[in-house]
Design goal:
The protein is α/β, with parallel strands linked by helices. The chain folds into 2 domains: 16-219 and 343-404, Rossmann fold, CATH 3.40.50; 245-332, 2-Layer Sandwich (formyl-coa transferase, domain 3), CATH 3.30.1540. It has helices spanning 25-35, 70-75, 89-100, 113-116, 121-124, 152-158, 178-200, 210-217, 219-228, 263-272, 287-292, 294-306, 310-317, 338-342, 384-390, 396-404; strands at residues 16-20, 39-44, 56-57, 60-61, 80-83, 104-107, 132-137, 205-209, 245-249, 255-259, 325-327, 346-351, 355-360. Strands 5-2-1-6-7-8 form a 6-stranded parallel sheet, with helices on both faces. It has a 3-stranded antiparallel sheet with strand order 9-10-11, with helices on one face. The protein has a two-stranded antiparallel sheet with strand order 3-4. α1 (25-35) links the parallel β1 (16-20) and β2 (39-44).
Length: 409
């Protein structure tokens, strides 16, 4: 853990978050707050967050030693964990006491669930008038579908996001980013509410939805389409709108991506790849000509890049500031990337069950309040006793009684 000399652990040091969330959307948001130094207390039912039981994620076996789930572990770093039966008056009473001593409450249950249990915003504000109550919803707090259940894929479908990537046919293609992008947006909303409370002295309710976040995540495509009243064309690397905004396979099977606008980069690109003759080729010498002949040009460039390995191409392109390019990496390339390592985008941590391992860290750099990875995800109910006794003032006799009533584990 990287602490500053004054002991500061992060920009949210001193804030306490109640994390009553499961799966991915809510847990990622609260983990980001924990990365920033907040104390996050994850509240689970007595049978735990359903994410603990995910043994296979999109076909990949995600089971860790001791039966732990990589899905759950990767979304719940940094948190303390308690287990409560919130269908009992005693369990709800514990939540009220936690709310009274906390700054932020986060939930991601279907509309109406929190209110039925007495844990809605109007319930908790009676115990803490300045609490920030954040809801992670599927479709937003208003409208005919506000109570409809949702997961990441349904959000991507409803937001119009399944038509941009994928094969050049009429098949939808899953992006698998809705949960992560919505979690970032929820954290953004919570941080705004924290600033408002500091400035104006009041708490409030924040709602961020899968639907709204996915519409926003594809902001450029959606906004331009709305303004010109036409759908964006589906991306097809064999027939792109711009051959300099595309990726090409090298002779060793690896890929290189280019991300450049049209005219100013054309000549530098041609020189960099050893084809200066293409600069004034009448088929490709203007943006319009390159567009009209894009399929021929992609075929030509495909053959060119296949003639050398990715390493050879990278060596010849390295240091050329006139073009914007990058290797196309895979997941397991990331921990070896010196740029990733230097900026702590991935950090190594000695996990008690699986040993030294690599973990994503919220990618925000602060000069005076750095982020840090302090602990791994809690076991179910791991911190129940210390939280109830140390924070809320319960006695050991109370613990015995609550266990007898099946309020806690």
């Amino acid at each position: 853990m990287r602490d500053q000399p004054d002991g500061t652990k992060g920009p949210l040091d001193g804030l306490r978050v109640i994390d009553w969330t499961m799966w991915q959307f809510g847990p990622v948001s609260t983990m980001m707050l924990a990365d920033m130094g907040a104390e996050v207390i994850k509240v689970e039912s007595l049978d735990g967050d359903h994410g603990r039981n995910v043994g296979r994620s999109v076909g990949l076996d995600s089971t860790l030693p001791n039966g732990a789930s990589a899905f759950f572990e990767g979304l719940n770093r940094q948190k303390l964990g308690i287990a409560l039966n919130l269908k009992t008056p005693e369990g709800v009473a514990i939540m009220y006491k936690l709310a009274a001593k906390s700054d932020i409450f986060v939930e991601n249950f279907r509309k109406g669930v929190a209110e039925r249990l007495g844990l809605g915003y109007e319930d908790l504000v009676k115990h803490n008038e300045k609490i920030i109550y954040a809801s992670a919803s599927g479709y937003g707090p208003k409208g005919p579908d506000s109570g409809k259940p949702a997961f990441a894929l349904t959000a991507e479908a409803r937001a119009g996001a399944l038509w941009w990537f994928g094969p050049p046919d009429d098949t939808p293609h899953q992006l698998d980013i809705a949960d992560q992008s919505a979690a970032v947006m929820l954290s953004y909303g919570i941080l705004g509410a924290i600033v408002a409370r500091e400035r104006f002295g009041f708490g409030q309710k924040v709602d961020v939805s899968h639907l709204g976040s996915m519409i926003w995540a594809r902001g450029m495509q959606n906004q331009i389409s709305l303004l010109v009243d036409r759908e964006y064309q589906r991306f097809d690397r064999n027939s792109p709108g711009n051959v300099l905004w595309n990726y090409y396979q090298c002779g060793d099977g690896r890929w290189i991506a280019f991300s450049m606008g049209q005219d100013r980069y054309w000549a530098p690109f041609c020189r960099a790849v050893g084809r200066p003759d293409l600069i004034d080729d009448p088929r490709f010498d203007t943006p319009e000509n390159r567009y009209q002949n894009r399929e021929k040009l992609v075929d030509l460039l495909d053959a060119l890049f296949l003639s050398r390995t990715s390493g050879e191409w990278e060596k010849s392109l390295q240091g050329n500031d006139d073009i914007i390019w990058e290797r196309v990496q895979r997941n397991l390339d990331l921990p070896k990337d010196p740029q990733v390592v230097a900026n702590d985008y991935i950090v190594e941590y000695d996990h008690p069950a699986i040993g030294p391992s690599n973990w994503l860290q919220t990618p925000v750099t602060y000069s005076k309040t750095p982020l840090s990875t302090r602990k791994m995800a809690p076991a179910l109910g791991e911190n129940t006793e210390e939280t109830l006794i140390g924070l809320l003032g319960y006695s050991w006799d109370d613990m015995v009684a609550l266990k007898d009533k099946k309020v806690i584990l």
